[in-house]
Amino acid sequence: MTATTNFIDPNVLASVDNLELRARIAVEGFLSGLHKSPHRGFSVEFTDYRHYYQGDDTRHIDWKLYGRSDKLYIKQFEDETNSRCMILLDTSASMAYGSGAVSKLEYARTLAAAMAYFVMRQRDAVGLMTFADKVNHILPAQYRQAHLMQILRTLVHLQAGNTTDTVRPLRDLAANLRSRSFVVLISDLLEGEEQSIKILQQMRAMGHEVIVFHVMDNAELNFPFQEISEFVDAESDARLLTAPGAIREEYLDAVKQFTEYCRRQCQSHGVDYCLLNTSEALDRALAAYLTRRARSF
Predict the structure, then answer these.
(1) Which fold has domain 82-295?
(2) 181 — alpha (psi -120 to 50), left (phi > 0) or beta?
(3) H-helix or E-strand containing 8?
(4) Residue-wise pLDDT tens for the chain (297 aa)?
(5) How far apart, in whole angstroms, are the C-alpha atoms of residue 95 and residue 126?
(6) Using CA atoms, how far apart are residues 291 and 297, in angstroms rounded to an integer?
(7) CB atoms near residue 19 (< 10 Å)
């Protein structure tokens, strides 16, 4: 299932200054593609319905839908929420990198906004945590339009921080999640990935749904550099002057090992993993979330 042909190029999307409008365009484009796709792997009617569970008020069952699908659905009311979703956004210095018009942070900001908008559209509560070397913002999961606006305002004013400490925010979140939740981590995972993934695994074992969106720049993934260049670590300021051709094969092999390690460690413990290239549309991220959400019912 894909909506790529209906989705907007991230460079064009980033040119829309209003983040709320950008999120709406992204989500509506994705949903339009879903409805047109002949390969829907799951229902897209969660906006209006949820599955019937024993003990639910039978007066709210949609019997017409039951006649068409042979499945029991409850009509979903505006003040109900099916689940809680916490979006964790890495704003460390490495996320500021961008080889093109869209940096990793701008891409991640747009993804977080679209995810928040999408989650609210699904009648779920959504919260936000941003972090670099410490937690910068934390907005507990709620289902209110005003709360969505607060999340979007927070995202608009984000700036890249300094060093990264993904472990501490994840540990704090794991200790404070009282009810079953969706945990969405958006990060380049360039620091402490082993410990971070272990905590995500623990969250999954505790019954939470967990998705990692591994955001990397196209140049980080494909290393297109040709001329002698100086490469600078955004967080440590370490510098390397070299001919790209001399290190390309070794670099690409290291990146492949890194992303494969992250994927294996996540998926082996039931954590969804989605590698995102900032030159590509956001549809894979939204599809991954909706697929995981559908499986949780």
Answers:
(1) Rossmann fold (3.40.50)
(2) beta
(3) none
(4) 443 445 567 777 777 878 888 888 888 877 776 655 443 333 333 445 556 655 556 766 777 777 777 777 666 544 445 689 999 999 998 999 999 889 999 999 999 999 999 888 888 899 999 998 888 899 999 988 899 999 999 999 998 877 777 888 888 888 888 788 999 999 999 888 999 999 999 999 999 999 999 999 999 999 998 888 778 776 667 888 888 888 899 999 999 999 999 999 999 999 999 999 999 888 878 888 877 776 665
(5) 23
(6) 11
(7) 20
Sign of CA dihedral 156, 192, 104, 85: negative
**E strands in 43-147:** 49-51, 73-75, 84-90, 125-131, 135-142
**DSSP calls for 124-172:** -EEEEEEESSSEEEEEEEE--HHHHHHHHHHHHT----SS---HHHHHH
Question: Which region, left, alpha or beta, applies to residue 11 given φ > 0 means left and ψ of -120 to 50 means alpha?
Answer: alpha
